C-alpha cells in the first residue's frame, strides 16, 4: 500500500506587531504633552517669579521697588491667563477668568499702587509660577521615562499626575468665587455709600441754606427794623415783631422737618413701629401699618428701613393715584422684611425717575434686596429685605 504524500499546510504569515505609539487615545496624548511642556514653562515661570520678587523686594526701599512689584503682579495675571488656556486645551479644564484688578479706593498713583499690591489673583499666580519648576521636573521625568519603560501603566500614571495639575490650576488660578465676588460687590457698595452720603450732605446743606437760614436772616433784618421803629412808631414795630414771631415758628418747623429727615426723634425713642405710624400719618393716602418685630434691630438697619418706607410712601402720595396703602414689617430668621402695597395705577420701575434706583442701591450696599411688582393698572407691591442685626451689635 502506498501512501500519498500530502503537501504541508502553509504556515500563517506572522501579523505585524501592534503599533506601540497608537495604543493611547488623543486625550492621553494631550495629557502626556501637557506634562512634557511643564518643564520648559516651569523654568520660565520660576525665573520670572524669582527675578521680579527679588528685584521688587530688594528695591522696595527706593522709589522703583514697589511699582516694579506691582507690575510683576500684573504680569503674573497674564501668566495665569496663559496657564488657564493651556489647561483648557490639553486637560479639558474650563476655568472662569478671575475678577479684574480691584479699583483703587482713591485717585492718584499711590492709590493704584496700593490696590495693585493687594491683588489676590496676582499673588496666587505668583505662587503657582513658583511651584511649577519642581513639579515640572517631576512630571517631565516621569512622563519621558514612562514612554520607554512604563508603557503599559503609563496612562494611569499620566492621569494621576494630570489630576494633580488640574487641582493645582483650580486651586490657584480659578476665581475664589465667593471671596472675589464679595470683594467686587463691596468695592461697588462702598462707592454707593460714599455717593449717597455726599448727596445727603448736599441736600441738608441746600435745605439749611434755602430754608431755615434764609428765614433766620430775614428774621434778623425784620427785628432790626422793628428795633429802629420801636420809639417813633410803636404800632408798626409791634406789627413787625408779630410778623417776626410767625417767621420764628416757620423756621422752627423747617428745622424740625430737617431734623426728622436726618433721624427722627420718634425712631430713636420709640422704635420702628411708632416711627412708621408717624410717617404714614403724613401720607395723603390712608395707610395701614403692621409691624411684627420681637425686638429692635440695630440702629443703622432701623434707620434704613424707616427712610425706605418714608420715600416709598412719598411716591405713593405723589405718583400712585392710590386710594389706600399698607406697610408691613416683620422679621424672618436673620432678615428684616418690609412690604409696601398700594392700589394705585402701577407702572413703577427702577427707571421711573421716582428714586427707586437710589433705594435699590442703598439697600444693596448693606446686602439688602429691593423687588418691585407693579404691573400697569396696579396694584403695586414693593418688597425690601435687610440683614437683621441685633441692637447690641450696632
What is the strand and helix layout of this fold?
Layout: H1 26-58, H2 65-91, H3 109-117, H4 120-148, H5 154-173, H6 177-229, H7 234-262, H8 265-270, H9 272-281, E1 287-292, H10 299-320, E2 325-332, E3 335-342, H11 356-364, E4 369-373, E5 380-387
Parallel strand pairs: 1-2
Antiparallel strand pairs: 2-3, 3-5, 4-5
Helix pairs in contact: 1-2, 1-4, 1-5, 2-3, 2-4, 2-5, 4-5, 6-7, 6-11, 9-10, 10-11
Describe this protein's structure.
- It is a single chain.
- The protein has 394 residues and is α+β, with helices and mostly antiparallel strands.
- It folds into 3 domains: 22-175, no CATH class; 190-262, Single alpha-helices involved in coiled-coils or other helix-helix interfaces (Up-down Bundle), CATH 1.20.5; 265-393, Histidine kinase-like ATPase, C-terminal domain (Heat Shock Protein 90).
- The chain has 11 helices and 5 strands.
- Helix 1 (26-58) packs across helix 4 (120-148), helix 4 packs antiparallel against helix 5 (154-173) and helix 9 (272-281) packs parallel to helix 10 (299-320).
- It has helices at 26-58, 65-91, 109-117, 120-148, 154-173, 177-229, 234-262, 265-270, 272-281, 299-320, 356-364, and strands at residues 287-292, 325-332, 335-342, 369-373, 380-387.
- The protein is elongated.
- Strands 1-2-3-5-4 form a 5-stranded mixed β-sheet.
Descriptors:
394 residues; alpha+beta; Single alpha-helices involved in coiled-coils or other helix-helix interfaces; Heat Shock Protein 90; five-stranded mixed β-sheet; disordered N terminus
In short:
The protein is an alpha+beta fold and 394 residues long. It is 63% helix and 9% strand.
